[in-house]
Amino acid sequence: MTKANDYNSVMARKAEIMLKSVGIDYSKFESGSIAFDYEKMMRETGYTLEEMQEIQYSVGVGNTPVLELRNLTELARKCAPVGKGARIFMKDEASNPSGSFKARRAANSVYHAKRLGFKGVVTATSGNYGAAVASQAAIAGLKCIVVQECYDSKGVGQPEIVEKARKCEALGAEVVQLSVGPELFYKFLLLLEETGYFNASLYTPFGIAGVETLGYEISMQFREKYGKDPDVVVCTNAGGGNMTGTARGLIKAGATSKLIAASVNLAGLHMASDGQFNKKSFTTGHTGFGMPFASWPDRSDVPRSAARPLRYMERYVTVAQGEVFYITEALARLEGLEKGPAGNTALAAAFYLAQEMDQDQTIIVSETEYTGAGKHIQPQLSFARDNGIEIFFGDPAEEVPGKNIILPSHPSLIKPRDVDIVHMRRSLIKTAVNTYKVEPTEEDIAFLAEETNSSVEFVKETLKSL
Amino acid sequence: MIKKGEWVRIHKTILEPSERAPQVPEDTKQVPLEMWDKGFLEADAELGDEVTIETVTGRKETGTLIEVNPYYEHDFGKFVPELLVIDKQVREIVFGGEK
Asked: Among A182, A194, B10, B16, which residue carries the largest CB count within 10 Å?
């Protein structure tokens, strides 16, 4: 019997396709209400830290260097009050095989797919994860399909995504490119069903657990070299996997570093809008993913996302596009490092956060990514200008995403803005109640306190106000 | 004439505007969801023909033949003079003794 392949029929088969392609029975962890056993899910479906290190090191992933950015620290100190300006570091994740920290997630997913006997992997991503899965699939001898959103309705491709398509192909993957729209998920499901391949989702327990090695390495490298853990770790935040995995790795190392998330502010731009698609100069690490995924993680392509960043972040800041471009150029000219934009989002935040800290303190950015044609500041700025975006020097606080990019006229104007994290916590609680439509049990309340890194009292008080 | 076995790129409409998901914004609802893929041509054809290809994973896809031996043209963009202003500024602040 041939199955109907229209949009509604395929979406109706989602649960069935997912179960087959991920191999996880998520119902085992459900309570039947709002709560589910997150730690049990991570324990039973993930890998131990030692197993992950073995998997990753055997394919050249991980053990990336920690770089101290001495001149950038000096620049921050020139902008800071006397005595302020923590030492700034960066974990050079661009030195992973595929050029980003995503190799850690992919190494685990592909290892798992091969172990379960899948012949290939499919992943839906316009980002570095596609290249990471392609790279790992190449090593494992598995077939790989990457589905990406790349073009607007005029056929104009975002240069950064075009470059990622090139890289995926160079690493042996089939790249299925689509125009703008969330129905990418429909084609993704069709491909999973047609091929019977593994869904190398970004949000499975093994994918997220793969990032734990990153947090663990940061702690170990710091202890070896500086005798203590970093005071602050800043993660660029989109789907929340970097923040979640890094935090869990730090916790496993026994570190108590403060975790801060950073995203590029793209407020006002609709992520599924054809007309606005090429008005943004960042394709990931921005608020369009960061905010909705942090305040409701279970919007991903698996029933329960293993990336739950609100559990770990103590603070969430946004930076302007102009601030990230400025810091990316400063990194090249002062540190001799050309890196892609994603990690530099957290770096722009760290540059300012360091100025709030004492000089003997340390702050580290959890990742760098590769750069090249299309995904370099020059093509991104040039593309923005061609799309009618004004670029000028001024105060980045006044930047309007989709209209202009304001480069700071002086580095002291780089000042990330705090996201109202209490509001995000309340929003998560509200969405949970609205989604499950139940009277929260004691177990649910305890769960929501963990989900929001708050307290039972906070959850109860929020529930009362709904 | 493009020969069977040549490496080509195809284009296809996946969803017509009327079939788009209810949650997409108005401007996106006006346009179809389009797809591009690459593979080996299954039979001799001309540009613009409806063809079948075999992709690198061995899948068959159909669509309109739009390119033979497709290649990438993305680059480092046009000159952006502002970057030189940043360079000068940061070097002066760090190495020029200026506060």
From this structure: B10
